[in-house]
Design a protein that fits this description.
It is a single chain. Helix content is 33%, strand content 26%. The protein is an alpha/beta fold. The N and C termini lie far apart (33 Å). The chain has a seven-stranded mixed sheet, with helices on both faces.
Amino acid sequence: PAERMPHTGQFLEQLVGGIGSAPSIVAVGAGVFPRLIPCDSLPALRTYLARDRDAVAMRALQAGAAWRADGRLAARHWNAADGWQGALDAAGVERFDLALLLKLVPVVQRREPGLVATLGNVPARRLIVSGSREAMVKRRIIADRETGLLTAFAQRFDWLVVNRFETVDEVGLVLERAA
């Protein structure tokens, strides 16, 4: 998102640390942010699937993926109601190594709570979720509220919090499957 742009370097540093050596990543609600991911500094990364219900953003990413021409980035129009099978098939995996739900869980929780279960049951070994530090409209700090919502999400869907991060714009949790 645009509000992240002034501090993109700081956020990417935190994100790359959380990505580690994950060979397969699915980013849900990705927008065009995957264009900023330093794929070349992630040698283990084989597949980065971007999924978003914004068809225009996905077409822009598809163009970027074609330009990269290395087969690592793929983008597709997607809604949580579609489920996960198509994404798994596209990646050729039974489960992703990492899922990114950046600034997505709080928004879906507020706008479409019926889809939260799909997000919580993402077929991934590790999950990075984040929320905003500041409300966009009212310009007040909401970091505690967002962190609480993310923590409750993790508990509800049996994810363990293995790390936390905070940047100027964002709060986040790195989660792993409890079982």
